[in-house]
């Protein structure tokens, strides 16, 4: 049975809503697989390592000296909500990858949070302006419950891949499943293909 397109308050059909999703409006649901940590930015670091020519670590201040860029658009959660007109800012993952210089053969990335949470992504889904290390939301510091002070943002995939409290990107030559991927979630998570679970 074909899904009916979402119809907004003014009766217009949304063509930008992936199948099986609903528009959450102004709400921003909080879903977390672990206890929300308190992170001291004076001690926090961001590392890119693994199959790279130059493993590199940045402090909070060093990361903020890099050119900030923004993302404005929708985000989509595997639990079927979508939020439109979001605004995040931070540093493009491309900048960090270019500094670390991925080696030939690097094909995947394992993103790790300060909590130990991990998620896996194909490297080409973090390239080309598709991903950020974000520290603001709607022009304000990113709230703790949404990953603050800093989270990975990969808005074209389901939001579990946008790891909260990010601290490390490790480049690999193989796909190594992260927390939710080991527990039944799809290895990629494309909302437009409804890649929610194993076998989708």
From TrEMBL:
Pfam families: Oxidored_molyb. It comes from the Bacteria. Residues 36-180 form the Oxidoreductase molybdopterin-binding domain. SUPFAM superfamilies: Oxidoreductase molybdopterin-binding domain (SSF56524). InterPro entries: OxRdtase_Mopterin-bd_dom, OxRdtase_Mopterin-bd_sf. This is Sulfite oxidase-like oxidoreductase. The lineage of its organism: Bacteria, Bacillati, Actinomycetota, Actinomycetes, Propionibacteriales.
């Amino acid at each position: 049975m074909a899904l009916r397109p979402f119809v907004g308050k003014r009766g217009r059909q949304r063509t930008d809503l992936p199948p099986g999703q609903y528009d959450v409006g102004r709400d921003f649901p909080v879903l977390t697989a672990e206890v929300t940590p308190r992170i001291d930015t004076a001690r926090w670091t961001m590392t890119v390592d693994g199959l790279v020519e130059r493993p590199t670590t940045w402090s909070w201040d060093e990361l903020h000296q890099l050119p900030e860029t923004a993302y404005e658009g929708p985000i989509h959660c595997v639990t079927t909500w979508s939020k439109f007109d979001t605004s995040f800012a931070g540093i493009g993952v491309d900048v960090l990858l270019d500094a670390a210089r991925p080696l030939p053969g690097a094909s995947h990335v394992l993103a790790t949070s300060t909590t130990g949470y991990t998620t896996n992504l194909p490297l080409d889904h973090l390239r080309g302006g598709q991903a950020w290390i974000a520290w603001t939301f709607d022009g304000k510091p990113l709230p703790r419950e949404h990953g603050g002070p800093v989270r990975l943002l990969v808005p074209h995939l389901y939001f579990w891949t946008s790891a909260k409290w990010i601290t490390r990107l490790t480049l690999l030559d193989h796909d190594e499943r992260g927390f939710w991927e080991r527990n039944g979630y799809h290895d990629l998570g494309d909302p437009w293909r409804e890649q929610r679970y194993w076998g989708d």
